[in-house]
Write a structure and sequence with these properties.
The complex is a heterodimer of chains A (306) and B (256).
Chain A: E1 2-13, E2 16-27, E3 31-36, H1 42-49, E4 57-62, E5 65-66, E6 77-80, H2 92-102, H3 109-117, H4 133-145, E7 151-155, H5 163-178, E8 182-187, H6 190-196, E9 199-204, E10 207-213, H7 214-220, E11 223-228, H8 232-241, E12 247-248, E13 254-256, H9 259-263, H10 265-274, E14 281-286, H11 289-297
Parallel strand pairs in A: 3-8, 3-9, 6-7, 7-8
Antiparallel strand pairs in A: 1-2, 1-4, 4-5, 9-10, 11-13, 11-14, 12-13
Chain B: H1 2-9, H2 15-39, H3 41-46, H4 48-57, H5 63-95, H6 109-141, H7 151-167, H8 169-178, H9 183-201, H10 212-217, H11 223-226, H12 229-252
Classes of the chains: A alpha/beta (306), B mainly alpha (256).
Chain lengths: 306, 256
């Protein structure tokens, strides 16, 4: 059964289309990364999943049930939307107590257990307004996790966290997924999403551009020949004269993407030596996720065929 | 009950709770000073402006006059203090950024709003009862003469004024959640206070909800002349509309 399913989900604000006919499926136990630039429509989609914003068109189902006023599975859903906030005058414990009441959770141990899990013990009686950003994040996650939800929806969960906090969240998400929880995770930080996601959706300007699972991601990462010489501008000119297409990267090196150059770097090296510009760097590199993402959201123009 | 407990928990350690009690407790203390001056011819002579005002209003130093002052403070000052309470309870969720945490929970959205209104009413009632208690103690300590009515009648008048004032908090709650914070409701309170004075001075206060508690309390010089059954109907309708609009907005509006 799909834990999350959306059908042609659309949200328009006046003439602006924030989310445009997105159809998604997230299966049980999956960590699904949702990647997009700031303003791509990630948060609007997440708010629609949680019933905070009504779709202009389309439908959302969680656990096979439509998300509407009658939806009664909210205790199976934990969420953290953008910056985690808490009642600043209440202690960490009291903040969690408020949500224990609102989630109607029984048992004295519920709060202490989640405090231990998120390493908040030292701050248990500290007012939330005095917590560091990282600990406020932990408190937000504690609120999302205290009822042991089957589905966790997290919007930018690592924003503002220090490296140690990022690793902690990553391990926590993997642990939760191993225990059978489904995690829907949005972020604009590609590397982090790639480290945890089993499946990745890319959204751009409100539209779902592509969906990839982890094996597809590796297959889609292209290769290119990266080189540098003592005079890259002159090297670009010589390569062009020999009909080799090259790009001068903003970081200063020359990149060649045509398969022939990637397969035979020695031919390019020989050509440059012959032109009196021996390479100081010559390496076949795999495209990284950032480059893949940029290529997906800004595809190069198709060449006209004769 | 869970939602009410959660709302009560949110008041823990909130300075604003005690601030409202202290601010409103000034009314019985100022009333006591007024009574002391009225009861002392020498002090009255020194405070000539106060003496003239008291003469115009026909106030004497007795228990009836003292409780009339308490009721008037409730009918006019209560609109401001209770309005502030409603602004805080409903607007804080936006100012603190916690509103979104209340929208996808097993406790329904309407229940959370009902609980907020219950806590609002309890908080305001507690302030009113606290002032009443302070008033009773002061009137006993000052040994004020009974006046023309009975104590039960004075307390009844005070409590009805309190109920009318509390009822006017519901539209303020609506402006707090519609304006997503404190600013809009506080602005509305300021405007209603100005309009309440202007409309009452123009002679239409009988049908203006925010003038009505003040007029009923006797601030217009005798409540039985200033209000009628329609005044209660208009105020009641305003309150019900405010309540319904708050619940509806919270349930159906996009919370972005």
């Amino acid at each position: 059964m799909d834990v999350i399913s959306t059908t042609a989900l659309t949200k328009r604000y006046g003439t602006v289309t924030a989310v445009d006919r997105i159809s998604l499926r997230v299966g049980e136990g999956e960590i699904h990364g949702f990647l997009g630039l700031n303003g791509a429509g990630k948060t609007t989609l997440i708010r629609m999943l949680l019933g905070m914003v009504r779709p202009t068109d389309g439908a959302v189902h969680l656990f096979g049930k439509p998300v509407n006023k009658a939806f009664d599975r909210w205790n199976n859903v934990g969420y953290l939307v953008e910056t985690p906030f808490a009642y600043p005058g209440l202690s960490v414990y009291d903040n969690l107590w408020v949500f224990q009441e609102l989630r109607r959770l029984k048992g004295r141990n519920v709060i202490d257990a989640v405090i231990d899990r998120l390493h908040l013990g030292r701050y248990k009686h500290q007012k939330a307004g005095q917590l560091s950003l990282g600990n406020r994040h932990r408190l937000g996650l504690a609120k999302a996790l205290m009822h042991k939800p089957r589905l966790l929806i997290l919007d930018e969960p690592i924003n503002g966290l220090d490296p140690e906090g990022i690793v902690e969240v990553r391990l926590l998400l993997k642990e939760l997924a191993a225990q059978g929880s489904t995690i829907f995770l949005s972020s604009h930080i590609i590397g982090e999403l790639a480290k945890v996601s089993m499946r990745l959706s890319i959204i751009h300007e409100g539209r779902l551009v592509t969906e990839l699972d982890s094996s597809e991601i590796a297959a889609r990462l292209g290769q290119r020949l990266v080189l540098s010489t003592l005079d890259n501008a002159a090297a670009m000119e010589r390569l062009a004269r020999h009909g080799v297409q090259a790009q001068l990267h903003r970081e200063g090196y020359i990149a060649l993407s045509d398969p022939d150059s990637v397969r035979h770097p020695e031919r390019i090296a020989a050509l440059l030596v012959q032109e009196g510009l021996p390479p100081t760097l010559l390496q076949v590199r795999s495209e990284d996720l950032e480059e893949l993402f940029l290529r997906v959201i800004h595809p190069p123009p198709q060449r006209a065929t004769a | 009950m869970n939602a009410i407990r959660a709302e009560l928990l949110k008041l823990r350690g909130a300075t604003v709770v005690w601030a409202t009690f202290v601010a409103f407790a000034l009314a019985p203390l100022m009333g006591a000073v007024f009574m002391w001056i009225m009861g002392d011819p020498e002090a009255l002579g020194r405070a000539s402006a106060l003496g003239t005002k008291a003469e115009v209003m026909g106030i004497t130093a007795d228990r009836g006059a003292y409780f009339l002052i308490l009721s008037q403070a409730m009918g006019i000052g209560g609109i401001m203090v209770f309005g502030f309470v409603a602004s805080w309870i409903f607007g804080r969720e936006y100012s603190d950024g916690t509103a979104k945490d209340l929208l996808a929970l097993p406790t329904g959205r309407a229940r959370i709003i009902h609980a907020k209104f219950i806590v609002y009413a309890l908080w305001c009632l507690a302030i009113a009862l606290c002032n009443l208690l302070i008033g009773l103690v002061i009137s006993q300590l000052m040994d004020l003469p009974a006046g023309s009515g009975t104590l039960v009648r004075y307390v009844q008048h005070y409590l009805i004024t309190t109920a009318l004032t509390i009822a006017l908090g519901t539209p303020i709650a609506f402006f707090a959640i519609r304006g997503k914070g404190y600013l809009a409701p506080l602005g509305v309170i300021g405007l209603t206070l100005v309009f309440a004075q202007v409309v009452a001075a123009a002679g239409f206060g009988t049908y203006f909800p925010w003038s009505m508690p003040g007029l009923y309390s006797g601030a217009g010089g005798g409540h039985d002349l200033a209000v009628n059954a329609w005044s209660f109907v208009v105020l009641g309708l305003t309150s019900v509309l405010g309540y319904a609009a708050t619940v509806r907005y919270w349930r159906v509006a996009d919370q972005g």
